[in-house]
Specification:
Blueprint (H helix, E strand, L loop, with lengths): L10 H58 L12 H31 L1
Length: 112
C-alpha cells in the first residue's frame, strides 16, 4: 500500500526553523571563535602589561642601585651617567628580545 504523499510543513514553521538554524550557525561560527580570540587577546595584553611593569620596576631599581651604591662616583656633574647606563641596558635588552623574536619566527617558518 502506498502512503499518501507528505505535505510540506507550513510556511511559518519553515521560517521559524530557518531562523533557528541561522542563529545556531552564527553562534557556532562567529561568537564562539570571537570569545576564544577575546580571551587569547586579553591574556596577551595582561601578560605584556605585567612584563612591562616588571621591566620598568627592574630598571628603576637598577638606576637606584647605581645612584646609591657607587660611593659618590656619579655625583655632581656625573649625575646623568646612571640614567644613560640604564637607557643603554634597556636598549640592549629590547634589541636582544627583537632579535630572538625574529629568530623564533624564522624557525617556525622553516618548520612549515
Amino acid at each position: 500500500m502506498d502512503s499518501p504523499p507528505r505535505r510540506p510543513p507550513p510556511l511559518p514553521q519553515l521560517v521559524i526553523e530557518l531562523r533557528d538554524l541561522v542563529v545556531t550557525y552564527v553562534k557556532q561560527q562567529t561568537l564562539v571563535p570571537l570569545q576564544k580570540l577575546g580571551r587569547y587577546v586579553g591574556f596577551g595584553v595582561l601578560g605584556s602589561l605585567l612584563l612591562g611593569f616588571g621591566v620598568v620596576f627592574l630598571a628603576m631599581s637598577g638606576l637606584r642601585a647605581l645612584q646609591t651604591e657607587t660611593d659618590g662616583t656619579f655625583s655632581g656633574d656625573w649625575s646623568w651617567v646612571p640614567y644613560l647606563i640604564m637607557i643603554v641596558v634597556l636598549a640592549i635588552g629590547g634589541a636582544l628580545v627583537w632579535v630572538l623574536r625574529g629568530a623564533n619566527r624564522a624557525g617556525k617558518e622553516e618548520a612549515r
